[in-house]
Amino acid sequence: QVQLVESGGGLVQPGGSLNLSCVASGFSFSTFTMAWYRQVSGKEREMVARKGAITEYGDFVKGRFTISRDNAKSTLYLLMNNLKPEDTGVYYCKHEAWARWGQGTQVTVSS
């Protein structure tokens, strides 16, 4: 049974940083491309970053975020720097091939 459990969200001031984690279980983590998506108010869910054989970022990231993974720990990370109020939303971990989602973690950027 695939499980994806995100953590690390919270309230941060503009310009601050957060490091999200997604612990995966139920499949061979190292084999698959994993991704972070987000749902921000008034917009469709969008890809933030994806990491498999190649690494990709959404256009809005502009060098502020870094996706990484520790295959030994079956964990996906998203380090977010220089956060902006428009980054506020729910961030989800996703198993890309099987379209399986975690429950999401709330990120709020506000002064």
Note down, in words, how this protein is organized.
It contains no helices and 11 strands. The N and C termini lie far apart (40 Å). Helices cover 0% and strands 51% of the residues. Strands 2, 4, 5, 6, 9, 10 and 11 form a 7-stranded mixed sheet that branches. A 4-stranded antiparallel sheet has the order 1-3-8-7, with no helix packed on it.
Topology:
Elements: E1 3-7, E2 10-12, E3 18-25, E4 34-39, E5 46-51, E6 55-57, E7 65-70, E8 75-80, E9 89-95, E10 100-101, E11 105-109
Parallel strand pairs: 2-11
Antiparallel strand pairs: 1-3, 3-8, 4-5, 4-9, 5-6, 7-8, 9-10, 9-11
Total helices: the number is 0
Write down the overall mean pLDDT.
Answer: 97
Please indicate the percent range of residues in DSSP E strands (runs of 2 or more).
Answer: over 45%
Poorly predicted residue ranges = none
Structural class, by secondary structure, is: mainly beta
Strand runs, count: 11
Q: What general form does the structure show?
A: globular
Distance between the termini: 40 Å
How much helicity do the residues have?
under 10%
